[in-house]
Amino acid sequence: xxxxxxxxxxxxxxxxxxxxxxxxxxxxxxxxxxxxxxxxxxxxxxxxxxxxxxxxxxxxxxxxxxxxxxxxxxxxxxxxxxxxxxxxxxxxxxxxxxxxxxxxxxxxxxxxxxxxxxxxxxxxxxxxxxxxxxxxxxxxxxxxxxxxxxxxxxxxxxxxxxxxxxxxxxxxxxxxxxxxxxxxxxxxxxxxxxxxxxxxxxxxxxxxxxxxxxxxxxxxxxxxxxxxxxxxxxxxxxxxxxxxxxxxxxxxxxxxxxxx
Length: 260
What we know:
This protein is mainly alpha-helical. It has helices at 2-24, 27-52, 54-58, 67-93, 107-137, 144-167, 170-174, 189-218, 225-249, and strands at 181-183, 257-259. It has one domain. The longest helix is centred in the middle third of the chain and has 31 residues, at 107-137.
């Protein structure tokens, strides 16, 4: 019973963290004050998440590492680092939630770094979620055709997400090309959340197909060359859809208002 309760708490914390992340990425909807308090809440949830999963840390130096485990550990480590840096830089700019920490880092540096690592956290969170999807859905016992059909639907959604990723200028943020976020304050709140969810889904899809490919290529049991190719084909399909949308819509969005 205790294990079931712990798992339920873990799932609840993970779900709330995902919702909080989507809210944090919707700055033009929440505004500065709520954004800061959401950041504090996300930091607290992150600490709780790692306390609940402390056994994972204890197992890091035990057992053998296969490809899937190595990728998972690498992604988890990068995600923890990016979220910690996001929180640190956010606190250094805070004027509402934790104003006593304002200026603990040069604000101009903190602003630029916060912008970049927050989007890296967003990308890695999606990929992290995706890596666990095959294991989470294994209990559904779906046959291969249904799984492929469902994955194909998500490939289309992911394609839209990759298009929005480029359209909204996010590559400029993650590669430190701009120190400011260009946000459309006239966009409906529901649309902002829907776009962010699509982008998160795109990277979750990429993570899920990566996990499927690794398990098909290196896992034990029945795994054919065809099974290994399915994740590759699905990812290529999503990228082609994204590329087609970028070409037909003209790439980056324009007429955005600047938020310092």
